[in-house]
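Study this one:
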Amino acid sequence: MRKLSGLRLPHAKQTSGSAIQTLPLPQKVLIPMSMHMGTPCTPIVKLRQQVAVGERIGTSDAFFSADIHASVSGTVTAITDYRMADGSTCKAVEITADGLQTPFAGLKAPVYTNKEEFIHAVRSSGAVGLGGAGFPTHFKLNTSDKIDFLIINAAECEPYITSDDRTMQEHQPEIIDGIRRIMKVLDIPECVIGVEENKPDAIRLLSECAAQDDAITIIPLPPVYPQGAEKVLIYHTTGRIVKEDELPSQQGVIVLNVSTVAFLEEYFRTGMPLVRRNLTIDGDAVKNPCNVNVPIGISLREVLTHAGCDFEKTVRLIGGGPMMGGCLPSFDLSVTKPTNALLAFTEDRRAVQTACIRCGRCMQACPMNLMPTALEHAYRRGDQDELRNLHLSLCMLCGCCSYVCPANRPLVETNRLAKEFMRKK
């Protein structure tokens, strides 16, 4: 099988040996009501209301959404407007912690007898993709298509990030039991776990944990970015091709992030919804790179302070990986469900743009065989038909084109703008 194009990046996985640390409880958290793909939630708590850990504080009637819960016990001290990293705004709930971490009295392990009740429980958990995309998990699972493969995305192909790697090293039983649970409820006969070869400890530990289960296969993959992109992972693990404007379920597969699966199993054991997450802190402005477990809503400043970040020297702060992550405008934003890494750098390495020299490197690097320069020209002209003809919707915004461009053209940024342009039209 021919492998899709990609890049051999310096992966800088220096925190792969750093066990996950639990940070001290913050004095307060600010929990945004929009931290998943789909419809934002509406706050359902009031000022001065006492809340407990795991209590639902935001919800939506829309199915393409995910409930939001309190990550600390304490008092609601503000319901305010929150400006997100992309400049848009949503409501946010501020909770001043009482330090007790009292769990919500109504929490209990979910009971289900069929697929519909299982999916309802997943929705109630607030589960979203923990690999960075924030796609509501129950929406993926709610399909009438015949599913042949459950694919676990454990590639973690972005440089620096090791939060999934540490989850695999520290929580294999939850991952494997979670896989078995999902396979049984959704009647999926096979599961493949795609892990890049640069995570040997994770591969060994998962293989040992799943050794007695013939339905689960761990597939080591070359460390070629973007190995963890959904369409790329599906092709490299099953050989199936997800066509343009087609859902993975239409090809008989469901893809879930490995940390999402670990969380779901913990939820079905305890009833505690998604109120905490693991993330990597790294970058040359960070004195002590590490992996941490924090409550959702804690400020980025507090997390970075724990890792010894030099705020005065930091000129670029990235949420996620350096390829697909986004620049963050403030240290005072909150950790949200999709936050899998914080990277602080002392220099901005963006170079001066020059004219395209028509070298074709962007086309050679693109896993989807697109023509980034042609897409750039079509967007500049506002040509919707040409953007469709050039298959803009297949672009994964992986950044391979921009990375290899000797002229430093903002090709992936242009495609992001083009996608927004097409959505509005």
User: Anything to note?
Assistant: The chain has a mean pLDDT of 95.
